[in-house]
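From the pipeline queue, job 12 of 40. The input is one protein chain; the requested action is below.

Action: predict structure.
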Amino acid sequence: MPTRRAVADLTVETVARAVDHLVLAPDKTFQDIEQACRDAVDHGFAGVCLPPYAVPYAVRLLHGTGVAICGAVGIPLGHSGLRAKCDEASTSIEAGAGEIDMVINLVAMKSGRYADVQNEIAAIRRLASGLVLKVTLECCYLTDAEKIRAARLALDSGADIVKTHTGFGKGGATLHDVQLLTRALGRSVEIEAAGGVTRFRQFNDMLAAGAKRVGVEAPLAILDDFYKWEAA
């Protein structure tokens, strides 16, 4: 468990406000989504991230609660192309999502076609005018130089949050990636660590490294870990 000094300024409320609940696994049902929305309200999570198909249902459940509803675009690898990404984003926007989380085009990024990467981000930014735009890099497939380049493309295209991973790739959030992106972007945008964070120690370390949000699939386990630390 983390030392008291490491998390002395955290309460269960501040921990919860840093949580993005990722409800994107292919075996999730509407019952799971309903429970995730209920948990988000009960515990004060920052938001829930959902497939576009499920966004209208979550909008009805979360109306007026203050919990952000985020529609995913291009999950998991960003390969779908500009037209498909715009359609996905529009589905969530028209349903009432307040946030859009798009994955960059990894084929374009790895091929050095940076204008294509930036054009996709800029197009979604225009569609999501007035909403929070997250751009997911899927860092586990990028070199450090590519991570920095992709993050700056996202920044230049109007991203509000740069996210490390979807949770579907071969790796998840690392302290190295959060620290690297924090140094590269400074305070220009927020950093979200996502993927593979299952314990409070990891969660706290991501916040200490500079992340403002942490995307997790099982947020109640994080809170349970926090309560155990608090009671120690």
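Job complete. The chain has one domain: 13-231.
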